[in-house]
Automatic annotation (TrEMBL):
Gene that produces this protein: LOC106122413
Annotated compartments: Cytoplasm, Cytoskeleton, Cilium axoneme
Similarity comment: Belongs to the tektin family.
Pfam family, one: Tektin
UniProt keyword terms in alphabetical order: Cell projection, Cilium, Coiled coil, Cytoplasm, Flagellum
Coiled coil: 73-111, 278-305, 337-371
Alphabetical GO biological process terms: cilium assembly; cilium movement involved in cell motility
Nucleotide-binding in keyword set: no
UniProt-listed InterPro entries: Tektin-like (IPR048256), Tektins (IPR000435)
Annotated organism of origin: Papilio xuthus (Asian swallowtail butterfly)
Protein name, entry field: Tektin
One cellular-component annotation, GO: microtubule cytoskeleton
Amino acid sequence: MQSVVTYEKPLPHLSLPDWDARLYGLQVTADTRRADAFDLRHSARQLRNETRIKTDWDIYHNNNRLRARVYEIEQWKSTLQELLDRLDREMNALKEEKASTERELEQLNVPLLICSECLSNRDGRRSTELTYDLADTELKKELCVTESNKKLLTDRCQSAWEKINKLEVIKFKLQLDLNDKNEALQIDKDMLNLDKECANITYKSDPLKTPKRMITNEQWLEKCEATKKMAEDGLQDTLSLRESLFVARERARNALRAQTDVTNYMMRKRIYDTQRARNELEWQKMKMEENMDKLAAELKIMGEQFSDKINALKVAETRLETRGYRPGIELAADEADIGLKEEVQNLKETIRQLQEKLDCAKATYNALEAASIKIALDLADKEHSLETDIRALEMRSALEPKRLQGTEKNLVLARVSDEVPKTEM
C-alpha cells in the first residue's frame, strides 16, 4: 500500500505583541500548573503521613485492646480453671466420703442381723424364763439404734448423691465455658499476630456486620460473674456436707458402740443373774433331795415302828381275847387284865399318832418331791436360758472392734494410716 503524504496549511505570522502575549500566557499557565502540582504533592504527602500515622495508631490501639482482651480472658480462664480444679478435688473428696459412708452403711447389716438373731434365739426361752428383762429391752434398743443409723446414713448418702449430680452439672458448664474461652483466646491471639505481611488476608463481603449471637461486654462480664458465682455457691456447702458425712458416720458408730456395750453388759448381767439363780436352785434341789432321803429313811423307820405297834396291838388284843375265855371264877379283872387293856388303849393311841405322823410325813415327802420336780423343771429352763444367752453373747463377739496392736494402733491414732503404702502379702 502506498503512503499518502499530506501538507498542513502554514499558520499565519504573528505580530510581536501577540507573540509576547502568547509567551506571557504560556508562562502564567506553567506557573499555575507548577503551583497546582506543588499543592497536590504537598497535600498528598500530608495525607499519606496523616493516614499512615492514623493507621499505625489504630493498629497500635487495637493491638493493645486485643492484648488487654487476651489478658482479661486469660485471667477469667485462670479463675475458672482454679474453680474447676477445686471442684474436681471437692467432688473426689465427696465421692470418697460417700463411698466410706456406703461401706459403713453396708457394715450395719452385720449388727442388724446379729441383733435379730439374738432376739430370735432369746424368744426360744421356755416357761417363766421368757421374760421382758433388761437384756431384751437393750437388744430392742440396739435394733432401733441400728435402724436409725441406717436411716441417717442413707439420708446423708442421698444428699451427697444429689450434691454430686449438681456439681457434675456445674462442672459441665464450667468446662463448656472454659472451652469457649480457650477457643476465643486462640482466635484473639491469632488476630493479634496477624499483620499486612500475612498470606491469609482477603477482602470480606460485609466486615461491619454484627453477628446475631453477639452480646455486649457488660453482658459478657455478667455471664462470667454468674458462672463464677454458680461454681462458688456449689462449692460453698460441699465442705459442710463432707463434714456431715464424717460426723454422721462417727455418730452412728459411737451410738451403736455405746448401745452395744450396754447390751453386752445387760446380757452378761442377765447371764450372771441366771447363773446365780441356777446355782441357788441347784443348792435347793440338793438340800431338797437330802431332806427327801432323810424323810424317806424316817418314813421307813416309822413304817417299821408302825408295823411293830400293829403286831404289839395284835398280841395285846389276842391276849385279852384269849383271857376272856377263862372258865368260872378265873375270869377275873386282875392286874394283868387291867394292864392289857391299858396297853391296848396306849397302843391304839400310839398307832393313831404314828398314822397321823406317817400321813403328815408322806404329805411332806410328796410336797418335797413335787417341789423337787418343779425345781428340776425350772432348773432345766434356766439351763436352757443360760445356754441361749451365752450363745447370743458369743454371737455378739463379732461386734467387738478389732484390737489394734503396735504400729497399726499408732497409725490409726495419728490418722496417717492412709498415707502409709500397703504391702501385699
